[in-house]
Specification:
The complex is a heterodimer. Chain A is mostly helical. Chain A is 73% helix and 0% strand. In chain B, strands 1, 2, 3, 4, 5 and 11 form a six-stranded mixed beta sheet that branches. In chain B, strands 8-9-7-10 form a four-stranded mixed beta sheet. A two-stranded antiparallel ribbon of chain B has the order 6-12. In chain B, strand 1, helix 2 and strand 2 form a beta-alpha-beta unit. The chains are: A mainly alpha, B alpha/beta.
């Protein structure tokens, strides 16, 4: 993640004066780092180590008369043997696979549109960003109404447009449609963020490049393909990675609208974790899920670093 | 302007000091759930209790229904258990076993204890020591509501009481006939719209299993494998799966009002007593209340509702008990409950609820309490039992393999019990 970059820079800065044995500056820099390091330790590192420890026990959510025991990797084995976990992992992958093109495509298209010198450009930029600052729960409740079967607005519009030839779709109640419906509303809610990132990327491309291309006789498509696209390469990578990581953490929409159903078709890893932890009150098991999820996201983050290096940013 | 703001701040801070000083009273924390109407009612009860007991402050803590256990767990973990808590009856065994509730008999007015119906006593009793741990004004039941016009159109027999409830053959025959009737979109609403992770599933569909001759778990050996995945259960859920497959059941995404919504798209409703008020208001004389059908050798109906217990963390259990007694006798509280078509759990409240009296429109529902009601399994593994069963029902209603889904659920339940060393002393209860 790009968040790591400033931290790396800071470490580098720390290393240099140390070599020069400039103690005054060293203390100053340690002092400046201390609050962040302390907070990260308390709120990130310690909890992570604790959850790794909890994952090795049969710790219940709330104290029980039976003793808490160290049970090694039993929880991990149990999860890896649970079909539901694999289903939820598969579902999240499916979700990611669909939402990447839908959400990033939508964001890219609107960003291109809003980068043109249109009247009321800023007004539209604000308008298109509105869903992103709306609470996901609110969006879910509204879309839940739109999705109603068989007489919800969405089905009525489709029925009208197809002159009744397309039968009403049970968007959230049909295992074949439920995840796709979640993709639709998630993309609509969240694309504003990616759109802003793309807009920033577009604004970062120097006008001189376009001017030069124009002088060379490039048409609009050639300018897009040979100037805009290469100029946006780091933006593309960033957007894809951040969207993937967010997609893996899919939870709110599922918790509000489908609770993982129908027939586990929208069960996700995080929802599975919350359920084992809170509903079944198995904190140890839930911690093991969280450790596994961490490892998965870590692998994605590492792959991203490789990608970033290849694209030389 | 800035000065005035500062003055106001100082004034309010001073007021705060005065207030905290005045609060050298006993504070009773009451954790509850409920619809907005109930929340207001509890607030009013608390005010009246404070007026009658000036040295006590009642602090109400609201937790939403669907996240109640999460909120309760959070309170346990942060050692902030309330004095009085509302709890869903089937979770009582788990709470008592975990050591959160104390016996309530010595803390509650004697006349209330004598006033409780059998089913109300049953829902508040812990099976190990047979002590009472919670009381309530109300209880609950599920009945089969019908639309008179549709029932007459298919020539259905309308049962007079619990004893001549429809048999499975009759019931399924009517479903089929209703499915072909003009104006009926769905023969029955089983309230799938409540969701797939809701206690409704176990509460309302569990009795169908028991009626068919099996159960969620064997109540002697406390083993689920061999019971939940036995033939009668597989058979019962295969039957329900068939209803869904045939398009006879209101789908989950169509809401929970199709029985009494405009045009009355659903002909029957396998519904809780609490929908009566709203349904009757919309359907007038067309609403028929019938006992739940017999799906096997005997008819079974559910019971149990949200009841009041006193926690072991309470520093003033006597005052907590006083509050519970006060509330259960409070006239306005009872009036509100009556308006909400609440199902009586106290005899005096039953006598005062014409809806449920002999000859009243919901008399059948009350008759079920003494004739067919079976409580959900009073075992500390209940959270795991209900969670596993909900998962299986979702799988089955969406075309999954019935036997496989029930076997997986039964194994999950047994696994949970094993993991907790059999929840002693439940393990040697034979």
């Amino acid at each position: 993640m790009t968040l790591q970059q400033p931290a790396l820079a800071a470490t580098a800065a720390l290393a240099r004066p140390a070599r020069r044995r400039d103690k005054g500056r060293l203390f100053q820099e340690i002092g400046m780092l201390a609050p962040a390091v302390a907070l990260l330790t308390i709120f990130l590192i310690v909890p992570f180590l604790l959850s790794f420890w909890t994952a090795m026990t049969n710790q219940p959510l709330v104290p029980r008369p039976t003793p808490v025991r160290f049970i090694g990797f039993t929880n991990f084995l149990r999860i890896l043997k649970d079909d539901l976990f694999w289903i939820s992992l598969w579902n999240v992958s499916r979700f990611t696979f669909w939402i990447l093109p839908v959400q990033c495509g939508l964001a890219f298209a609107t960003a291109l549109l809003l980068h043109q010198k249109l009247p009321f450009r800023n007004f539209f930029r604000g308008l298109f960003f509105l869903p992103a600052i709306t609470s996901m729960v609110v969006v879910c409740v509204i879309w839940g109404t739109l999705f109603q079967y068989p007489t919800g607005p969405l089905n009525q519009v489709i029925g009208f447009l197809s002159a009744g030839r397309i039968q009403p779709i049970d968007w959230l109640g049909d295992p074949n449609w439920a995840m796709f419906s979640i993709v639709l509303l998630s993309a609509w809610q969240a694309y504003g963020f990616q759109m802003i990132v793309y807009l920033a990327g577009l604004q970062g491309i120097p006008d001189e490049l376009y001017d030069a291309a124009r002088i060379d006789g490039a048409n609009a498509f050639q300018r897009f393909w040979h100037v805009t696209m290469p100029g946006l390469r780091p933006t593309h990578v960033f957007v894809l990675v951040i969207t993937t990581i967010q997609a893996f953490k899919l939870y709110t929409q599922v918790a509000v609208l489908t609770q993982g159903g129908p027939r586990s078709s929208t069960e996700t890893v995080v929802h599975y974790m919350v359920r084992t932890g809170f509903e079944e009150q198995k904190l140890g098991l839930a911690s093991a899920v969280s450790v596994i999820l961490f490892l998965i996201v870590l692998v994605i983050a590492l792959l991203q670093r490789q990608l970033l290096r290849r694209f030389d940013v | 302007m800035g000065k005035r703001l500062l003055q106001a701040l100082i004034a309010s801070a001073a007021l705060g000091v005065v207030m905290t000083h005045a609060e050298a009273k006993t504070v009773i924390q009451v954790m509850h759930q409920g619809d907005p109407g109930w929340v207001t009612t509890y607030g009013d009860v608390a005010k009246r209790f404070e007026a009658a007991n000036p040295d006590v402050d009642v602090e109400l803590i609201y937790a939403p229904h669907d996240a109640y256990n999460e909120k309760f767990s959070a309170a346990v973990m942060s050692k902030q258990l309330p004095d009085v808590m509302e709890l869903d009856a089937p979770f009582l065994a788990n709470y008592v076993w975990s050591g959160y509730l104390q016996p309530i008999k010595p803390l509650i007015d004697q006349d209330i204890l004598e006033d409780m119906t059998e089913s109300n006593v049953a829902q508040g009793t812990y099976p190990i020591d047979k002590e009472l741990y919670a009381v309530g004004l109300t209880d609950s039941s599920v009945v089969l509501y019908g639309n008179r016009k549709y029932l007459e159109a298919v020539g259905a027999r309308i049962p007079k009481g619990v004893d001549d409830a429809w048999t499975r053959e009759e019931f399924e025959g009517y479903l089929e006939k209703l499915s072909k009737l003009e104006g009926v979109k769905w023969p029955i609403d089983t309230f799938r719209g409540y969701g797939i992770k809701t206690e409704w599933i176990t509460y309302a569909y569990g009795p169908i299993l028991q009626s068919a001759g099996c159960d969620l778990i064997d109540r002697k050996t406390w083993k689920s494998v061999g019971t939940l995945d036995s033939d009668p259960c597989v058979n019962a859920l295969t039957m329900m799966q068939k209803w869904v497959k045939n398009g006879w059941v209101v789908p989950q995404s169509s809401g929970t009002n199709q029985f009494f919504a405009e045009g009355h798209p659903a002909a029957l409703a396998f519904g809780g007593h609490w929908i009566y008020a709203e349904a009757a208001a919309s359907m007038k004389d067309d609403i028929v209340v019938m006992p739940l059908p017999k799906f096997g050798p005997k008819g079974v109906s559910p019971n149990g509702t949200w009841i009041w217990g006193i926690t072991t963390a309470s520093e003033h259990p006597d005052i907590a008990g006083k509050f519970v007694s006060f509330m259960l006798k409070d006239k306005q509280y009872r009036d509100y409950a009556k308006e909400d078509s609440a199902y009586p759990g106290l005899k005096s409240f039953a006598a005062d609820s014409p809806l449920y009296n002999v000859g009243g429109p919901m008399a059948v529902a009350f008759e079920q309490a003494s004739k067919t009601a079976i409580a959900r399994p009073p075992h500390p593994a209940y959270p795991a039992i209900t969670s596993a069963f909900m998962g299986a029902v979702d799988e089955i209603f969406n075309d999954g393999d019935v036997k496989a889904a029930l076997t997986a659920a039964a194994e999950k339940i047994d696994e949970d019990i094993e993991e907790n060393d059999g929840y002693p002393p439940f393990d040697d209860q034979q």
